[in-house]
Write a structure and sequence with these properties.
GO cellular component, one term: centrosome
Subcellular location: Cytoplasm, Cytoskeleton, Microtubule organizing center, Centrosome
GO molecular function: gamma-tubulin binding; microtubule minus-end binding
Largest sheet: 2 strands, antiparallel
Organism: Takifugu flavidus (sansaifugu)
Family: Belongs to the TUBGCP family.
Structural class: mainly alpha
Length: about 950
C-alpha cells in the first residue's frame, strides 16, 4: 500500500468520495466533479489569522461553561499540536471549531458526542450543494463525559484508545492536498446558508447502500448514543485501521508472529505499529479531538493507539524471549537433566499460555461469525485484553527474568537461581516459582537419594554438588576421590546438609572399596521413600528443616556409626592411634629407656657402620624385655627401625628412628603427611631424650668419681665447675622435658582422645588427628615460625654433647693420673716392706715431674670449661629472649620456669627489657 503523500490530491479526493458514498469510481463521477469545484473555490476569511487569539477565545468559552478541566486539557492538546509538523493550518482548524461552537441552532444544553455533529445530508444531484437534513429525533446528543469514562475507563487521555467509533476518523482530503480547509467550508456555507458544522461531513457504514441512506436516513447506524449501543463494523475501510484488525494482530503478536499492522522492530527489539500507518492515525486523532472540543462537547481524550498496542505487544516480546531460550536449550544435551527439567517447566507454562490464546482466538472467531459489536459486554477489545492479559504478563515477566538470570547456569546452580526468585511477597509469583523449582530440583533429589542410599553417582553432565574423580586410587578415596562442588550446592541446602550428604555416600563407597565390607546399604540405614515425581520433590522441599533434614540425619548417623564400628572392630583404629602415642611419641617410658641402653653401643659409632638388621634385633629384644610385649601382635609387627639419610660426621644417634607401617583403611587416618609429622616429632623427642640420657650419664660419672678424686685437691676447682654447669644443663633439660611431655604431648593427646570418643564420622577423627599433629608440631618448635628457637635449642643440645666430651676427657686424665699415683705409692710401700728404700732420687724426681705436668694441664681444662659454660649461657640467654618475645603464651611461661631464679636475667640486659615490657603489657591489659 502506497503512503498517502505518494498520491495526488485528485486521487485522494476521488477515494474520499467513493468511501463516503460507498460507490465505485465510475458511479461517483458527478460527486467528484462537485467536490473538485467546492475545494477549488476562492473563498477566504475576512478576519485576521491569529491562532493565539482563537485558542484563547475557545478557552474562555470553556471557562464560561465551567469546564475548567476541559480548558486545561484543550490548552495541553493545543500545545502538543504546535510541536507536530503534520497539521499545517492550525488557525483554520481552530477557527472552524470556534464557528461550529457558535452555531445558533445548536441546543442550549451541552453537546455530548462528536458523531452527532455530522449531518445526515446527501446531495440530491451532482450539481447542487449538500443540503441540511434535519437530525432525527431519536439521535441523542446528551452523551456526557461521565458516561464515556464509565464505558471505557477513567484514566483520561493516557488510558483511552482511539478505537471508539470504527477506528480513526479518515483524514480530510483537503488537508492532505495542502488546500486550506476553511475555503471548502465557506463555499458550502454560502451555498446553503447554513452554519458550517451542519454540513461538515456524513458517515455511512460499509454494509449500507447509498440508496437506503437517502431514503431513510434515520435507519442508519446512529453515532450519538452511548458506546454500549454503537455498532462498530469490524471490516476495515480503505486507509483506516480498525480495532478488530488490531485485536487480531495483537493475538498474533502474543505468539511472537508479526501482524499486518504490528511488527517486530529488529532495531529497537520490540513490537511497533508499522510506520506507514502512523501519519494517518496521529493526524485523525488530533483532528477528531479538536472537532469535539470545538463543538463544545465534553469528551475524555484517549490514550494513543501506539502506546496501547505497545503495552499489549510486550507479551509477544516476553514470549519470544522464553521460547528462544527453551528452543536453544532443549536440544543441548550438555545442559543436563536439571536444565531439561527447567525447559520442561517453561514449556508447561507456555502451554498454559497457548491455551489462553486459543480461547481468545475462539472468541474472536465467534464474534466474526456472529457479527458482534466491539463495544458489547462480551466483545474482545484492546482494553479488555489489557485486563485479561495482566496475570499472564506477570507470569511471562517472571519467566523472562528467570531466563535472564539462569543464562550460563546448570545443575544445582540453576536450581539456586530459581529458588532465589521464590523469595517474594507475591503469593502467585511465589507459587509459580515453587512449581518450577519442584520440577528443576527433581533430578537433584533423585541424585541425592541414589547417593545416600546406594552410594551411586551417575552425574554425566556434572550437575550434582558431589563430584567424583575416577583417576584417584583406593588408598586416597576418602581424601581425594569425592568432593563438593560448592557452586552446585542448591541455595535451599545448607552447607552442613551438603557435607553430610557427601559423607554418607563417601562412607558407603569406602566400606565397599577399601574396607571390603559387603553389607548391603539397606541394612546399614533404612531406605526412605524416593522422590519419584516432581510432586514428591515439592513435598520434600516444602519441609527442608523437618522431614528432609530428618532423612539426611538418619542416613548420616547410621552410615557413619557403622563405618567407625568396622574400623575399630576389624582394623583396630583406636589401638593403632594409641600405639603411635606409645612408640613414636615416646609414651612407653620403660621401653624407650631400655631401648636406649641397648642401642648406646651401636649409636655412638659412625652412622655409616650401622646395619638395620642389627638394630631391628635390638628393637625386638627391647620389646620382649618390657611391657611392650603385651601389645597386640598386629601392632608389634608394624613397629620397625628406620635409618635416616646420612650426612658426613653423623653418628648413630643422628640417623636412628623408629617407624610404624600403616596400610589399608587405617592409612586413611595415618596418611603419608601424618607419618612424616610423626617422624619429625620423634626425632625431636629422641634428641631431647638423648640429652636427658646424656646428662644422666654425666651425673653418674660425677657421683662415682667424686670420692676417688678427693685425693687430688688440685682438681677441686675444675670439678666444681663441672658440677655447676651440669646442674644448669640438668635444670634446663628437665624443664624442657616437663614442658614437652606434660604441657604439649599429654594435653594435646587428652584433647585428641576426647574428640575421637565424641566423633560422629571419620572426618571428625581425621580432623581431630590433624589438629593434634599441628599442635605438637608448633608447640615443639618444629614449624616455620619457630625455626630460630629450634636452632637455639639444637645449639644447646650440642653444648651438652660437648660438655660430656670435655668432662669425659677430664675424668680420663684425672683417673689416669690417679692410677699412676696409686701405683707409685703401692710400689713405694712394697719396697719399704722388703726393707729397701721406698724411692730413689731419680724415681722421686720423675714422679714430681709427671705430677707437675698433670697440674699444668688443669688450667687448660678450667679454661676449656669456662669457655664452654660461657657459650652455653649465651645461647640459653638468647633462647630465653626469643621465648619472652614469642606470641605463644605457653612459651613465655616456659621462659619463666627456665629462669626461675633470674640467674640469666641478671647477665642479659635484653632479657630484662623483654621481661619488663612483658610485665608492662600484662599490667596495661589488666
Amino acid at each position: 500500500m502506497a503512503t498517502l503523500d505518494q498520491k495526488s490530491p485528485n486521487v485522494l479526493l476521488q477515494s474520499l468520495c467513493c468511501r463516503i458514498t460507498g460507490k465505485s469510481e465510475a458511479e461517483v463521477a458527478h460527486q467528484f466533479q462537485y467536490a473538485v469545484r467546492v475545494i477549488g473555490s476562492n473563498y477566504a476569511p475576512t478576519i485576521e489569522r491569529d491562532e493565539f487569539l482563537v485558542s484563547e477565545k475557545i478557552k474562555k468559552e470553556l471557562m464560561k461553561q465551567r469546564r475548567e478541566p476541559d480548558a486545561a486539557l484543550f490548552s495541553e492538546l493545543h500545545r502538543k499540536l504546535q510541536t507536530q509538523s503534520v497539521l499545517k493550518h492550525r488557525w483554520s482548524v481552530l477557527y472552524l471549531l470556534l464557528s461550529l461552537a457558535e452555531d445558533p441552532r445548536k441546543p442550549s444544553g451541552r453537546v455530548g458526542n462528536y458523531a452527532a455533529l455530522f449531518s445526515q445530508a446527501l446531495p440530491r444531484d451532482a450539481h447542487s450543494t449538500p443540503f441540511y437534513c434535519t437530525r432525527p429525533q431519536s439521535l441523542a446528543l446528551g452523551y456526557s463525559e461521565r458516561t464515556l469514562s464509565a464505558s471505557l475507563g477513567t484514566s483520561g487521555i493516557s488510558s483511552l484508545g482511539v478505537y471508539t467509533l470504527n477506528g480513526p476518523t479518515p483524514t480530510p482530503q483537503s488537508l492532505l492536498a495542502g488546500q486550506p480547509p476553511q475555503s471548502a467550508a465557506a463555499a458550502v456555507a454560502t451555498a446553503a446558508g447554513q452554519p458550517l458544522g451542519s454540513r461538515l461531513a456524513w458517515t455511512l457504514p460499509t454494509n449500507c447502500s447509498p440508496s437506503s441512506a437517502v431514503a431513510a436516513p434515520t435507519t442508519r447506524l446512529p453515532l450519538g448514543p452511548s458506546l454500549a449501543s454503537i455498532k462498530v463494523v469490524r471490516a476495515r475501510r480503505e486507509g483506516e485501521v480498525s480495532e478488530a484488525a488490531l485485536v487480531r494482530d495483537i493475538l498474533y503478536v502474543f505468539q511472537g508472529i508479526d501482524g499486518k499492522f504490528i511488527k517486530l522492530s529488529a532495531q529497537d527489539n520490540c513490537y511497533k505499529i508499522d510506520s506507514k500507518w502512523m501519519f494517518f492515525v496521529t493526524y485523525t486523532r488530533f483532528v477528531s479531538a479538536l472537532v469535539m472540543y470545538g463543538l463544545g462537547q465534553q469528551v475524555v481524550l484517549c490514550k494513543s493507539l501506539r502506546d496501547t498496542c505497545s503495552r499489549l505487544a510486550e507479551l509477544g516480546w516476553l514470549h519470544n524471549k522464553v521460547r528462544k531460550y527453551t528452543d536453544a536449550r532443549s536440544l543441548d544435551r550438555a545442559f543436563g537433566l536439571v536444565g531439561q527439567s527447567f525447559c520442561a517447566s517453561l514449556h508447561q507454562e507456555l502451554k498454559e499460555y497457548y491455551r489462553l490464546l486459543s480461547v481468545l482466538h475462539s472468541q474472536l472467531q465467534v464474534e466474526d461469525d456472529q457479527g458482534m459489536n466491539m463495544c458489547t459486554e462480551s466483545s474482545l477489545t484492546l482494553r479488555r485484553l489489557l485486563v485479561w492479559m495482566y496475570d499472564p504478563k506477570v507470569r511471562l515477566k517472571t519467566l523472562a527474568a528467570l531466563v535472564d538470570f539462569c543464562q550460563g547456569r546448570k545443575g544445582g546452580e540453576l536450581a539456586s537461581a530459581v529458588h532465589s526468585y521464590g523469595k517474594t511477597g507475591d503469593p502467585q509469583m511465589r507459587a509459580l516459582v515453587q512449581h518450577i523449582l519442584s520440577l528443576v530440583s527433581h533430578p537433584i533429589i533423585n541424585f541425592l537419594y541414589r547417593w545416600i542410599y546406594d552410594g551411586e553417582l551417575e552425574d554425566t553432565y556434572h550437575e550434582f554438588f558431589v563430584a567424583s574423580d575416577p583417576n584417584v586410587k583406593a588408598d586416597r578415596l576418602w581424601h581425594d576421590k569425592y568432593s563438593l562442588r560448592k557452586s552446585m550446592i542448591p541455595s535451599f541446602f545448607t552447607m552442613d546438609q551438603a557435607r553430610k550428604v557427601l559423607l554418607i555416600g563417601k562412607s558407603i563407597n569406602f566400606l565397599h572399596q577399601v574396607c571390603h565390607d559387603r553389607t548391603p546399604p539397606g541394612k546399614i540405614t533404612p531406605v526412605s521413600k524416593s522422590a519419584d515425581t516432581p510432586k514428591d520433590a515439592a513435598e520434600l522441599l516444602s519441609d527442608l528443616e523437618g522431614a528432609f533434614q530428618e532423612k539426611i540425619d538418619v542416613a548420616y548417623f547410621d552410615t557413619s556409626k557403622y563405618l567407625l564400628d568396622v574400623l575399630n572392630r576389624n582394623y583396630l583404629l583406636l589401638e593403632h592411634l594409641q600405639a603411635m602415642r606409645r612408640y613414636l611419641l615416646l609414651g612407653q617410658g620403660d621401653f624407650i629407656r631400655h631401648l636406649m641402653d641397648l642401642l648406646k653401643p651401636e649409636l655412638v659409632r659412625p652412622a655409616t657402620t650401622l646395619y638395620q638388621h642389627n638394630l631391628t634385633g635390638i628393637l625386638e629384644t627391647a620389646v620382649r624385655a618390657t611391657n611392650a610385649q603385651f601389645d597386640n601382635a598386629e601392632i608389634l609387627k608394624r613397629l620397625d627401625v628406620r635409618l635416616l639419610e646420612v650426612s658426613p660426621g653423623d653418628t648413630g644417634w643422628d640417623v636412628f628412628s623408629l617407624d610404624y607401617h600403616v596400610d589399608g583403611p587405617i592409612a586413611t587416618v595415618f596418611t603419608r603427611e601424618c607419618m612424616s609429622h610423626y617422624l619429625r616429632v620423634f626425632n625431636f623427642l629422641w634428641r631431647a631424650k638423648r640429652m636427658e640420657y646424656t646428662l644422666t650419664d654425666i651425673w653418674k660419672g660425677q657421683m662415682c668419681n667424686a670420692k676417688l678424686l678427693k685425693t687430688m685437691p688440685e682438681l677441686s676447682g675444675v670439678l666444681h665447675q663441672c658440677h655447676v654447669l651440669a646442674a644448669e644443663m640438668v635444670h634446663f633439660i628437665h624443664q624442657m622435658q616437663y614442658y614437652i611431655t606434660f604441657e604439649v604431648l599429654e594435653c594435646s593427646w587428652d584433647e585428641l582422645w576426647n574428640k575421637v570418643q565424641r566423633a560422629q564420622d571419620l572426618d571428625h577423627i581425621i580432623a581431630a588427628h590433624d589438629v593434634f599433629l599441628d599442635s605438637i608440631i608448633s608447640r615443639c618448635l618444629l614449624d616455620n615460625n619457630s625455626r630460630s628457637l629450634l636452632n637455639q635449642l639444637r645449639a644447646i643440645f650440642d653444648q651438652i654433647i660437648e660438655f660430656q666430651s670435655a668432662q669425659d676427657s677430664l675424668y680420663r686424665s684425672a683417673l689416669e693420673e690417679l692410677s699412676l699415683r696409686l701405683q707409685y705409692e703401692r710400689g713405694k710401700q712394697q719396697r719399704e716392706e722388703e726393707g729397701q728404700w721406698g724411692v730413689t732420687a731419680e724415681q722421686e724426681a720423675e714422679e714430681k715431674k709427671r705430677i707437675q705436668e698433670f697440674q699444668d694441664t688443669i688450667p687448660k681444662m678450667r679454661s676449656q670449661l669456662r669457655i664452654l659454660a660461657h657459650l652455653y649461657q649465651s645461647i640459653v640467654q638468647h633462647f630465653l629472649v626469643l621465648l619472652m618475645t614469642s606470641s605463644d603464651e605457653s612459651l613465655r611461661f616456659l621462659s619463666f620456669r627456665l629462669d626461675f631464679t633470674e640467674h640469666y636475667r641478671a647477665r642479659e640486659p635484653r632479657l630484662r627489657a623483654s621481661l619488663g615490657a612483658t610485665r608492662g603489657r600484662r599490667l596495661s591489659n589488666i
